[in-house]
Write a structure and sequence with these properties.
- 2 copies of one chain form a homodimer.
- Chain A is of the alpha/beta class.
- Chain A has 3 domains: 13-248, 3-Layer(aba) Sandwich (Rossmann fold); 255-435, 3-Layer(aba) Sandwich (Rossmann fold); 438-533, GMP Synthetase, Chain A, domain 3, CATH 3.30.300.
- Helix content of chain A is 27%, strand content 23%.
- In chain A, the strands form 5 sheets. An 8-stranded mixed beta sheet of chain A has the order 2-1-11-10-12-13-14-15, with helices on both faces. In chain A, strands 7-6-5-3-4-8-9 form a 7-stranded mixed beta sheet, with helices on both faces.
- In chain A, strand 20 (438-440) and strand 21 form a beta hairpin.
- Chain A is globular and about 75 Å long.
């Protein structure tokens, strides 16, 4: 027996309809790539998106076609986003910070038919246009007056292109499981893999993410998504803000401390979200200028672990609540928020910061478990760590074109590649990446914990820990250290410093000193290179 | 092209799994029907629900089978609710306040196989058991010690019945469009009609209803659903509380002011929800005992319009925020909340109360329009009123067994039977029921507006307005008045009092004085009876 409720497919363009109908006057304020501040609202944005949809349809973009954007967060990016969604085409937000050859590879793999590109990234597209095998048309997200001299063939400015249609158009209707958007993961190993969101998954994810204990998004909010729309589905904000009627403040191309601060204050932003690097720049700016945050109420910090000092600075010095969050491209992307359950709600000072170092708990629709390498579930005691696996309607089942093969376990859980603990109240804390954890005699040692401890030594500038082959224990930790300029510390001093602060069997078997530790483009330690470098290293204990 | 996200059906029992996993220790506190306070938590409630599911399965209850409950809000009702959901059976919450013959008719129409009944309502079931054609088993929601002497055949107490199974059971999996629950509307005319919720509709509805600008439900909340689970799907609270990890405080059979106050205070309730009648009793109790509300933060008021004085008392005197809400059984049931958008957020005093008289705006997933009798959409100017129509994934498409036929318009909207305005910011305000509105020369006059105005006269105890046949205008308003004891006011005095406060053509064509106005069981004016009474009345203007 079936329920007798209406068949109302969960389609993403219904979000902008809702925003235009019930929150039509609410603003979308953008710092344009050209420079000036631009203002529109949900009512007008919807009309522009309908115009884009009509123009795309007239051009021949059809349901299921992929279209790339290389663009900052602006109202034009939002127009293209909803215009594509409204005809069943697929927004493919490309990270313009990748190497040009990676961008070309990704666009070809996705078989994008068009590229919408910000002025900033025209040179990138010029560099790769010869290699793009499926792109028919490039549109530069500007107006005729600001069109640059460009070597791109068959190119047009967005405003002229859009003006060839009016907004007298009706959204198309289709199955809610239709593809809505794509985002490639830039894995440290192997080719990038495409995650394909559906209309259904985006809607369910945004409903769950907007909840009081998660984003807590309200029509009274003015939300600034500093996290770019091309980073992990834009953390859902391009959906969850209009869904709740929150105003949007879009930072465009400028994410330095001064520019972000300027928008936070002049546009009375109440909530914002980005990676720690952005907030480091803002906090430095605040300190240098002795400025305050007068309207900001809360900041969502994710993408990598939020340092304790950052949480402390925001909360104690500037009165801004920090929401530590975790997710990944494969999760649409939001997986957990460190909002306070009643068991922790009355904590203060260091005890509160202890909890806020955790990545938190998931909303309904995200299931979690931690397991050992054999898939056996591990206890939720806040200490035992294991592979973090997730399941839910907005979690990837497979990658585009079957890349990576079968990615779910027997129970349908996706292995996040993160290693974490779960505490008794269901708070998750990432302790390592599963490929970096050191497996010593069947037990796991967190490389990150050892690194964090080692850099506490006054003579250590940077530290990395990798597992090195060991005849008895399979793997044992090797500590790789860069000394601070002019320091002469030796192995024993470092080990003595660590002793007593960790379990005996976690102690590194050796310490080596190097001039430099290799890094990725985004500043993370490149452990693959380091492991290559030390793959024949013979530990003194071996 | 389809999205590549996991197939994770939206099933209601996943809500209790989530609550047990991430909010396991959070309490469900109930005033038992037997008297004492009972305490459990989500972890244990889930185990009990599994036990119920296993017991039902062993008995032979199958997917799609209907099972009735005649029960107050208690932990046992929640156990049965989730036990049924977890095997794909259908909770049919019957309103025990209906006449026994109506209850029998509804249970037979639904073809319920079992009845779970609270001690309070055993006499009701005894009265009708001979007429129940499909019920095989009655279970009394108590333990062996409290079983009453009863004439019911084949009856057992709940705890003994449940103890015949353990909790080693796995929920069943099925299509998310499967029926989950049933609730009959007690229409003032015609037979009751069954609304059939699906698992999908319940989940989407609860996600939308829990949002910050709607219920604003959080794990830090302690929610007391005074609204019974048998009233309009329990306003979603049996889902939205565990979904967000909020504790629940269940009032059982006692809803008088003193009992409600006692639970609000001793259990530190932060949010509660019920119809105005309940809050009238509480406010009277507070006034009589000169008491305060020390933990309550907000109260959701719906079911019928929340009087302005009630909002004022809660907010100004007791510091409790009022959330005026609207919905109906056919909408799962929540349709709108009067939370404040930025355009109204700074209002104070009377200006704020003016807005809070409105029923508010819908969450994403609820679409609204107002139309005239021909289906033409009317402007959102806050003045023009028309038939309120709604569409969405948790709005009824049809009734059980096709009762009432096709209930949607050409665009798939359901006519709520309410007449309302919409203002420019998307706030809806109910002005009348469409069958009560007076249609004068093609224009509509709100009977409720005239009634509210007339009772403002110092000599009027109660007033009702109905439309009476008129040769020129089709219908004209007749004002029916009950005078206060000993007052002698006449027609002209009342009309003079109303003059200038409404449009001229809204003025009643006549006033008649009666000793009594007929009421329904729930205290509403019975306009059908009144219209019958005056169906041959000849207006002086006719």
């Amino acid at each position: 027996m079936l329920g007798l409720m209406q068949d109302w497919p969960l389609l993403c363009h219904k979000v902008i309809d809702h925003a235009a109908t019930f929150h039509g006057g609410r603003e979308i304020v953008s710092r344009s790539v050209e420079g000036p501040i631009h203002r529109t609202n949900y009512h007008d944005l919807r009309l522009s998106a309908l115009q884009v949809a009509k123009r795309l349809d007239a051009y021949g973009i059809r349901q299921g076609d992929r279209v790339a954007t290389l663009a900052w967060n602006t109202w034009r990016h939002m127009e293209v986003w909803y215009g594509l969604l409204g005809i069943g085409a697929i927004y493919h937000t490309v990270n313009p910070r990748l190497f040009p050859e990676q961008i070309a590879w990704i666009i070809n793999h996705a078989e994008d038919r068009m590229v919408f590109v910000d002025l900033t990234f025209v040179p990138v597209v010029e560099k790769i246009i010869g290699e793009l095998t499926t792109v028919e048309q490039v549109v530069v997200l500007t107006d005729a007056d600001h069109m640059p001299d460009t070597s791109l063939p068959n190119v047009i400015d967005y405003e002229s292109w859009k003006a060839e249609a009016d907004s007298d158009f009706a959204w198309k209707e289709f199955d809610e499981n239709s593809a809505a958007g794509m985002c490639y993961t830039s894995g440290t190993t192997g080719e990038p893999k495409g995650v394909v969101y559906s209309h259904r998954s985006n809607i369910i994810h945004s409903l769950a993410a907007a909840a009081t204990d998660m984003l807590n998004a309200s029509a009274r909010d003015r939300i600034m998504p500093v996290v770019p729309m091309f980073h992990a589905n834009g953390w859902s904000l391009a959906f969850s803000a209009p869904m709740t009627g929150a105003a949007m403040v879009m930072p465009g191309a400028r994410m330095d401390g001064a520019s972000i601060y300027d928008l936070l204050e002049t546009e009375k932003v109440t909530m914002t979200a980005a990676v720690p690097t952005v907030w480091l720049m803002l906090l430095q700016h605040l300190e240098q200028t002795d400025a305050n945050l007068t309207s900001l109420e809360r900041v969502v910090i994710g993408g990598s672990a939020c340092p304790r000092a950052m949480t402390k600075a925001f909360q104690d010095r500037y009165g801004v609540q920090v929401l530590h969050a975790w997710g990944m491209t494969e999760m649409s992307p939001l997986g957990s928020f460190c909002s306070l359950k009643p068991e922790y709600a009355d904590l203060k000072g260091d005890a509160l910061l202890d909890i806020q170092e955790k990545q938190g708990h998931p909303p309904f629709t995200v299931e979690m478990k931690i397991t050992d390498d054999d898939g056996v579930e591990l206890p939720w005691d806040g200490k035992t760590f294991g592979r973090l696996k997730v399941r839910g309607p907005a979690v990837a089942e497979s990658y585009f074109k079957g890349a990576g093969g079968d990615i779910l376990d027997d129970e349908g859980f996706f292995d996040t590649g993160d290693v974490s603990t779960m505490d008794k109240y269901g708070y998750m804390q990432i302790t390592d990446r599963s490929k970096d954890v050191i497996k010593s005699g069947g037990e796991w040692i967190s490389s990150i914990d050892l690194e964090n401890l080692a850099v506490g030594h006054p003579d250590v500038a940077e530290a990395a820990v990798i597992g090195v082959e060991h005849p008895k224990w399979d793997e044992r930790p090797l500590l790789v250290v860069v000394r601070k300029d002019g320091r002469e510390t030796e192995k024993q001093a470092i080990l003595s410093f660590m002793e007593g602060k960790i379990a005996k069997w976690w102690m590194p078997d050796d310490v080596v000193f190097v001039d430099e530790i290799p890094h990725t483009a985004t500043g993370k330690i490149k452990k693959t290179t380091l492991r290559d470098q030390f793959k024949d290293y013979r530990l003194p204990t071996a």
